[in-house]
Amino acid sequence: MITALPAARVPDPRDAPTMRWGIVGPGWIAERFARSLRRFTDQQVTAVASRSLDRAQAFAGRTGIDTAYGSYDELYASDAVDIVYVATPHTEHRSCALGAIARGKHVLVEKPLALDAAGATDIADAAARAGVFAGEAMWTRFLPKFDVIDSVLSSGMLGRVDTVIADHGEHFGPDHRIFDPTLAGGPLLDLGTYVISLAYTVLGPPATVSAVGLPANDEINGQISALLTAESGAHAVLTTTMTSTTPTTASLCGTEATLHVPGPFFMPGPFTVTAHSGASVTYDEAPGLQVDGLHYAAVDASRAIADGRLQSSVHPLADAVGTLAVLDELRTQVGIEFPVSR
Ligand SMILES: NC(=O)c1ccc[n+]([C@@H]2O[C@H](COP(=O)([O-])OP(=O)(O)OC[C@H]3O[C@@H](n4cnc5c(N)ncnc54)[C@H](OP(=O)(O)O)[C@@H]3O)[C@@H](O)[C@H]2O)c1
């Protein structure tokens, strides 16, 4: 029976303890992260570091940050930083996270946590040894709408979920870093990680994985479609591409009802639960962009640090490592080799 949806349990982002953030890799996502923190939280972004002092100063000027460094190491050593947000390309996540951890800093690393499960495990192990927080900024998991989806799933409202269908396809021009093989380009780590993470969260670690790929050109994969089966026997049917724009929807289909998230499913926005009778209930939220949601992952980290926890309870490191293990298997099956592992 379809009743009203539970309320989101996500606390007010402004109530989170204030941490002093340092940003490394002042690119596209870093700017949205800095603006999201400024607009929606009491977190302080105290420093930014680039491989070039000019770029760090330009970013600091645009986003109102006091201190700009011309090397990442200077930021890791700064006494004015509690936690480092790693916003470099995937290939650099492991080395940046390990560099910050070695200086005793907490780390929140953009998705994916590393290039592969082994690199992610290195980060998790180093953080545990150093007694600092480490987390993957898989921002979708921290959005209020996904907290409500968690409640819907645990309430049994959908019945037994036998089918998960999700896609993330976005058309990129050939000048974008996603076309660069030396930066582990291709859709898998930028876009595919969202659909694999969703399936992993809903169905748990897969029992079987099968995948097919389609090259974008003679250098790089452009598209992957995957079928995962869960221990329960449930199926996840997933696809990701960087050569075309797809609906970017997600459907969690149960024996009692179907939960449908319109595209883009990984951003703030509404979803609907519809019973087989046709009765439905909608989570009503205005569609939003990264700037409207990145801060939820940040304040989750701040709360964990203030509580003395070394990882998120919403998105534990095991989920980030487990998702990467699935991505590793997909790559093996499709024949994608990353030329670099740093
Ligand atoms: N959550 C989301 O919605 C979302 C959206 C987009 C991207 N991301 C993630 O965020 C990460 C960064 O993506 P982005 O789109 O922001 O990338 P970007 O615009 O290219 O920015 C990355 C920055 O990293 C620095 N960098 C360090 N080593 C580099 C290298 N070897 N090559 C190029 N740049 C290097 C560069 O800054 P300096 O040279 O100035 O230091 C660059 O500005 C990726 O892992 C991606 O998956 C997340």
UniProtKB/TrEMBL annotation:
Q: Which residues form the Gfo/Idh/MocA-like oxidoreductase N-terminal domain?
A: 19-132
- InterPro entries noted in UniProt: Gfo/Idh/MocA-like_OxRdtase_N, Gfo/Idh/MocA_domain, GFO_IDH_MocA-like_dom, NAD(P)-bd_dom_sf
Pfam families attached to this UniProt entry: GFO_IDH_MocA, GFO_IDH_MocA_C3
Q: Which residues form the signal peptide?
A: none
Give UniProt keywords alphabetically: Oxidoreductase
Q: Where is the GFO/IDH/MocA-like oxidoreductase domain?
A: 151-259
Which PANTHER family does this one have? OXIDOREDUCTASES, TRANS-1,2-DIHYDROBENZENE-1,2-DIOL DEHYDROGENASE
Protein family per UniProt: Belongs to the Gfo/Idh/MocA family.
Q: What is this protein called?
A: Gfo/Idh/MocA family oxidoreductase
Please tell me the species this chain comes from.
Answer: Rhodococcoides kroppenstedtii
